[in-house]
Amino acid sequence: MKHHPLCNPLEHRVSRRQFLGGVGASAAAATIGTFGGLVHSAIADDLRKREKQVIFIWLDGGMSQLESWDPKPNTEFGGPFRSIATSAPDIRVSELLRHTSKQMHHLAIVRSASTKDDSHSAGVARIQRGDPKNRGVDYPFFGSAVAKLLGPCEGGLPAYMWIKPGNGGFIPTDAGFLGAKYGALAFGDGKAPESLLRPSVISESDEALRNEFRLKLNSRYAARHRKPNSEANSYVYDVARELSRRGDLFDESKVSERDRDRYGHYELGRHMLQGRRLLENGVRFVKVNSYGWDSHGDNFNASQNLIGKFDQSFAALIEDLAERGMLEHTLVIALSEFGRTPRINSHVGRDHWPQCWSIAMAGCGLKRGVAIGATTERGEAVATDPYDIGHFFHTWFTALGIDPKRIEYDNHGQPLPIAHDGCGPITAALA
């Protein structure tokens, strides 16, 4: 932060509060969104037939690339940790990634990410929206974009589900101009809402009659209001009704003790395991969130704790997806809003550093066992071609079979690119 060397934790709390809300409150909010279509409906129909999936691991606050994907041992700013060999030839990572190092042959690491915003408030939104040129509208987060472009998988579960610490609820703001229908359904601590299951005092026939009555009321409402508003409002109830039949998604008794041990008996481990289960059950886009990565002070102890937990759970996830054949159709992304400074501050910490950092990827459409781009000897700058977040959005869409040059959003007759039209894909990462 420019005004103080240490971030105020309130900045993170305020940012998160903007996204929290219950399903009931959000149902009302859902009626005020706008709706974005696709210019080419035939292409949209074809895209929805492809059962590609995404798991998006968001490490809020800024993971240090120097203690993870791009170590600089024995240099002025390298820190105390060594680099270690991996299962991919010629790729070394921090010793804090000892489990992930054994899965590196599945991964594609881009070490030359170079973005612009060094504040959380700007960076969180910009990185997750892909930073298209200013079009006068709020662009959707990547999860909402995928939900719109690919729709739900055949199982009928919500297209965009978010496993996060803290509270949950339906979060329409992620959808931007696409409209609330494409917002995120968030599950606080990876758990189902208390009111998810149908009460035993209400029979199936009673529930069916109640739903029939609701649909009739919705029909009357839709006749007097704009179609996007009624669609979004109905969607919230339809999602809740479908989830009420799927209590098994959150039944921890179905998780083996071996998996619990492999992923880790802590928050991120449980959430990463829950994310894998949602993918297995046919959720199109799963976001797994971890907070507390803003290591302005005591960076090395913080990294040992945080990256150690990420390493165990992330390696287990990659191993499982590979063994199940799911990497063939699942895109895995792990990133933050920026990296950390090479220079170590007076609090033995690292500050915000969007100038050069790393993003880890794996799965469908990507090369495996590659490290793309490089930074200078002390990690202060990108030494190869820099890639802004727009390049990554082009890469991710392309890996999912979505061509950003052919497909556009339709915002009430205004055609808008789905990714920054001044960027292109990172071809070295694509299979």
SS-based class: alpha/beta
Number of domains: 1
Q: Total strand count, please?
A: 16
pLDDT < 50 runs, ≥5 residues:
1-5, 8-36
DSSP helical segment count: 11
Average of pLDDT:
87
User: How would a textbook summarize the main sheet?
Assistant: 9 strands, mixed
- State the assembly state of the protein chains: single chain
Helix content: 25-40%
Q: Order of strands across the biggest sheet? A: 7-8-6-9-2-10-13-5-14
What would the principal axes of the Cα set say about the shape?
globular
Q: CATH topology, which one? A: Alkaline Phosphatase, subunit A
The CATH architecture can be named as 3-Layer(aba) Sandwich
Radius of gyration: 22 Å
Provide the β-strand percentage band.
15-25%
Spatial separation of the terminal alpha carbons = 38 Å
The secondary-structure element order is: HHEHEEEEHHEEEHHHHEHEEEEEHEE
CATH class: Alpha Beta
